[in-house]
Amino acid sequence: MTQYCEVCPDIEESICHVLLHYPRAVQIWSSSSAPLPSRWESVKDLLLFLRDSSRRPSTTELGVVVAYLAYHIWLDRDNCLFERRGSLPRLVMDRAVPQAMEVSLLAPSTSFGLARDIWGTYAAVVAPKYASLSWVLPPPGYLKVNFDGGMAMDSASGRVGFVIRDHDGRLIAAGGRSTPGLTAVGAELRAAWEGILYVRHGLGVDKLCIERDSATVTDWI
């Protein structure tokens, strides 16, 4: 069954709409101080821009900013949908750009690991040191699990993932996997379970805390 945008009547809430044409997304893109190109009409246009920008040193930094803006636009839409709250467009941009700048500064000196599918395994990618500017450190001796999950429009499939950091902000591991049909909340819970399971069995650590922007899921756990 087609899901329509609750703000834009008769418009399907597709990935393209959420990232590029949703009114809040348009406001966030417009609030950026980065010299963005003319507005993209499709996700394919956006992905082609990111691909091309990564191939030229002169545009790599701009590509990273665009990628982080898109990511934070998605998170903001998630908050609006599940928590019925969102940030001012300028605040979304202010969170995204510093993180993008930090990644750009680290990029020449390090190679970032990629999260990979961990279906049925306890394998995850060991990552280099990186601390988000807006991320809160866990207590000394603890690991923090950040997790996220989402479903496709038809609810037939989805993806879940997690990121694990220590009390110094060092990125320890990241992993992800596909899921069968679940609800949106079910996908979030599965993502949390995968992260906790990896910390306990993969790393052998009992002291952990979890963090997610969905208060409902965190409270249930």
Automatic annotation (TrEMBL):
Pfam families attached to this UniProt entry: RVT_3 (PF13456)
Enumerate the InterPro entries for this protein. Answer: RNase_H-like_dom_plant, RNase_H-like_EbsB-rel, RNaseH-like_sf, RNaseH_domain, RNaseH_sf
Q: Name one GO molecular function term.
A: nucleic acid binding
* Membrane-spanning segments: none
Look up the coiled coil feature and give its residue ranges. Answer: none
Extract the Gene3D superfamilies matched here: Ribonuclease H-like superfamily/Ribonuclease H (3.30.420.10)
Residues covered by the RNase H type-1 domain: 146-221
Protein name, per record: Uncharacterized protein LOC103700150
- Say which species the protein is native to: Phoenix dactylifera (Date palm)
